[in-house]
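Throughout our pipeline, every protein is held as a single compact record rather than as scattered files. Such a record has a labelled line for the sequence and another for the backbone structure tokens. The remainder of this section carries one protein's record, kept here as part of the documentation:
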Amino acid sequence: MQSKQTYRLASGAIVVALVLAAAMPGHAQLNLTVAGNGISFGNSSRLNGLRFNWSDSNLDLINGVNVTFWRPYGDQPGGTINGLSLGLVPAADRMHGVSLGLGAVIPGRYSAGLTFGLLAVVSEGSMYGIRMSGLNVGGLAVVSQAGMEGINAALLAGVAEGPMRGINFGGLALVSQAGIWGLNFGGLATVAEGPLWGANFGGLALVSQEGIRGLSVGGLAAVAEGGIEGATLSLLAVVSQEGIRGLSVGGLAVSIGAVESSRDIRGLTVGGYKVEGRSVQGVSISVIRSKLRDLTGVAVAGYNNVQRSQTGLTIGIYNRAPRLNGVQIGLLNYAGNNPPGLRWLPIINAHFD
């Protein structure tokens, strides 16, 4: 009988404390603590132990378990939570440990550890995993106004104003205003204003304003204002304004697909429709044509148009080079530096400096 009365009194006190905390954005609370250690019901600012509150505001430091039933007052409650954060929308300036939100998790400056929001994880600061073992999961989105490190996954999108490093997954897209490094998957697109390095996949496109390096797959296109290095594959186009080095495959069907670079292309390059670049050093293969300022190596296409100098071999229906140092094999071949009677030849043409 005594235990039931004690239970009812304790339950009533807890309800009163939570109601007061919900009504007052200050620090209404009921504490069962000794020197700040124990259990707190309400909006206590500091605690080592177990804390229950309706809605957080003006946090200082919570070490232990923090359970919040509603979203915080204002934009951010501030403070630091070390340990386990649970609730509808757990939030604090700094969140270390495990943070689980039925709606979202909102770290103000940064979070470290395991962060999971059923709808979203949103940070105005940085999100850091425990080096390679941190995990940030948003049911719909993971968003950071700074950077992300560790494992970052979202059903719709992963978005960061800073760099993304580690394993990054966005069901529809990955977007970074800085760079993206690691294993990166965007269901439709992976987009970085900075470099895109590592194993990169974009269901429709890979886009980088600085450069793409590593193993990269863009379903329709891989586009970089900087250089492209490594193995790069896409259905329609591989495009670089700075240069392409390595194994680049653009175009998997006749009459569509291109590999284009305003600068050098090095390595093995395959374009379904065309290969176009300032110069090619290596092997270039396309079904329709190659348009190259200079060639050092081998080019195979229906029409090989070397605009300045060819050193090596071209094979096609029509091969053209103003200056040839090598061999042309095709139905019609033109070498501009041969004597007048030998400039136009069928089947094979050659000139060696």
